[in-house]
Amino acid sequence: MSGHCCAPGRSGDEDGREPRPVAVAPAPRRPSGLIRLDGGAFRMGTDDAEGFPADGEGPIRTVTVRPFLLARTAVTNAQFAAFVKATGYVTDAERFNWSYVFHLLVAPDLRRRAPSPAETPWWLVIEGTSWQAPQGPGSTINGRQDHPVVHVSWRDAAAYCAWAGGRLPTEAEWEYAARGGLDQARYPWGDELTPRGQHRCNIWQGRFPTHNTGADGHLGTAPVKSYRPNGYGLHNMVGNAWEWCADWFGTDHLSRPLEDPRGPETGTSRVIRGGSYLCHDSYCNRYRVAARSSNTPDSSSGNTGFRLAADL
User: Fold this and answer.
1) For residue 136, what are the β-bridge partners?
2) Which residues pair with 180 in a beta bridge?
3) Among 79, 134, 152, 302, which is least packed, fewest CB within 10 Å?
4) Bridge partner list, 187
5) Which of 177, 171, 161, 202 is nearest to 79 (CA)?
6) Is the pLDDT of residue 264 over 90?
């Protein structure tokens, strides 16, 4: 199957107005603690038989990226809380007063009365959901300070990055980083999903979308430093939570420069990469390094976060 575990998108305010622009606060400092990546040429994309050609995963092309900085982990709840405390920022999920939550993570009383999209009934529209209440009213991030922040839109992620003195990575930078120095490997660590029976990422085990065995140790998000890092010292580049990239989504890769590509100039959806804890090989096999998807810039869900990048 070629379905998606990412949530459906939304676009614009519910009263029909255009969404507000991203609130960008002046950067207080240059970001610290990021890893320097040397850049250079690498083979981007895949022609893997397990891939989804309609997603624009191919063709394989040699792309060059300049040196840049990237965070070892996705932005955490604790880091995002510091941003909100300093700026008073209000996320899109809070402004809309709802976000998508996976059905098995919702309290039974909320689950029974929550609407859901017909094409993806495992996603529930839960009022009062936000990064601070990731499973709806009554839930908190207590004990999850080191988990990736979720229920953040592309606009929320871009605002955080500007405040932190950085930016979102381009899609090419993201894939270069996720590969960890390996050429055309399926995952950040190689071609085998569970080498020697060891789990290397947080994805779905069991029968999607009704039974997750949690064999990898997690039913929802995992701490951002779970599992061993890739060859560049980066954690959880696949699985756990989708990560927003800077680019508009497109599939005409060869029509654009192959040196520091930036994606189309305009679009309706932004790129997300890496898959999430809901990906499963029977449905959404998008925890491969070359897999890609997208969502509208104001969309949010319980399995989408982001990672901070910066120029040297």
Assistant:
1) 134
2) none
3) 79
4) 190
5) 161
6) yes
Q: Return all residues near 122 (Cβ < 8 A) that are at least 6 apart.
A: 102, 103, 104, 116, 209
Q: Which DSSP string do the residues of 11-60 spell out, in sequence order?
A: -S-TTSPPPPPP--PPP-S---SPEEE--EEEEES---TTS-GGGT----
Question: To 10 degrees, the CA torsion angle through 62, 64, 69, 74?
Answer: -30
E strand intervals along the chain: 35-37, 40-44, 61-65, 68-70, 98-102, 123-127, 206-207, 211-212, 242-248, 270-273, 292-295, 304-306, 309-310
pLDDT at 11: 60
What digits encode the pLDDT tens for the residues 2-35? 456 677 777 654 443 444 545 555 555 678 789 9
pLDDT average, residue stretch 181-208: 97
What is the Cα–Cα distance from 6 to 62, expressed in whole angstroms? Answer: 28
pLDDT, mean of residues 194-211: 96
CA distance 8 to 4: 9
The Cα 57–Cα 62 span in angstroms is 13
Pair of tokens at residue 22: 């991203």
The residue with greater pLDDT, 28 or 152, is 152
Q: How far apart are CA 271 and CA 278, in angstroms?
A: 18
Task: Name the token pair of 230.
Answer: 């890739």
- Number of residues that make up the chain: 312
Owner of token pair 């790129």 = 271
Number of H helices, E strands in the chain: 5, 13
